[in-house]
Amino acid sequence: MAPVLVLIAVAAAGVLVWLRGPEVVAEVIIDESRRLLALIPDILEKEKPLDTRVIAKRAAIKEAETAPPPATKPSAPLAAPAGKTAKTVSPPAVAAGAKPKDKKAVVPKAQTPPPAPVVRPKIASSRITVRQGDAESPGLVEKNIKPMSPEEEAENNYRQAAAYLQQGRRGDAENGLRAALAANPAHAPARELLAGLALQNGRTLEAQQLLEEGLQKNPKHYSFAQFLARLYVDQGAEQKALALMEGAAEAGAADPAFLAFLGALYQRAGRHADAVAAYTKAVTLRPDEGRWWLGLGISLEAEKNLAAASDAYTRAQQSGALDQNLQRYVEQRLTAIKNK
């Protein structure tokens, strides 16, 4: 872009903030929720590899189903206890014509029987038994492996999908996440991650359906409501978004980002007293977020509480979290309040 066009774009943005300050601030805060949902896959890709204990358990079950039964070796004769005389075993009869000293010639070699057909156990009961030999003890060792529950199956698929995502295999990751939801539709992390991938790939309707289904199955998972409300705002259904957020307000009362988003929706609806309450809770939980202080100042000014609005604007200005346009808007509001 040419320098002149850049200057024009910056100037236009500044005029937009000056003319539509409250609306622009609310849009910035609301957009955080949509950005967060779309960032979930990227954040997970940068995380350390997840714990693979559940994956290892599944591998053990699969090995138990497919491994042939090991050949058994005859047990060595046990030594007689102290104080007791061991029983004498009679030597085998010598075949006719053979010399007594040549005992090896008359002992026939045992032929190895053909391997038994592999029978895969069906996991129908609560446990399966795996019989295998041990290097130190040739006898059979029994191990009980409990089959995975739907919740464990879902967690296993989710972790495998996360591993695929960390390897850049997004197609395999999506398949694993769908398998996780098929096993346990209430698995919230798998649903959020799949919705985030769908949103990144432009499949907004799919992301919306995933979140709506998740909210039906788990109404207390307020993140579903927050992300879904952001998609409703994109569609122009702000009243629907606000009603959804209000329904999840109790569950999200300790999440500052949720509260700031709710405050922005109240602000856009002209309900400034409610916006002040939501923003105040948000900045109490996270005092260094300048945009939330700015949102609080706007609603306080709309409520004619100029002294508190000036304090909120000052906190926003001192946070260092505002861009140039928002900083300019704050300076304008502080000047306007001072001249009143």
From TrEMBL:
Query: Keywords, A to Z?
Result: Repeat, TPR repeat
Segments of skewed composition (Low complexity): 73-82, 89-98
Q: Does the keyword Transferase apply?
A: no
Identify the stretches annotated as TPR repeats.
Answer: 256-289
- List every stretch annotated Disordered: 65-142
Name the Gene3D superfamilies on file.
Tetratricopeptide repeat domain (1.25.40.10)
> What InterPro entries does its record include?
O-mannosyl-transferase_TMTC, TPR-like_helical_dom_sf, TPR_rpt
Keyword check for Repeat, yes or no: yes
Q: Which Pfam families match?
A: TPR_16 (PF13432), TPR_19 (PF14559)
Q: Which domain of life is it from?
A: Bacteria
Q: What is this protein called?
A: Uncharacterized protein
Which source organism? Candidatus Muproteobacteria bacterium RIFCSPHIGHO2_01_FULL_65_16
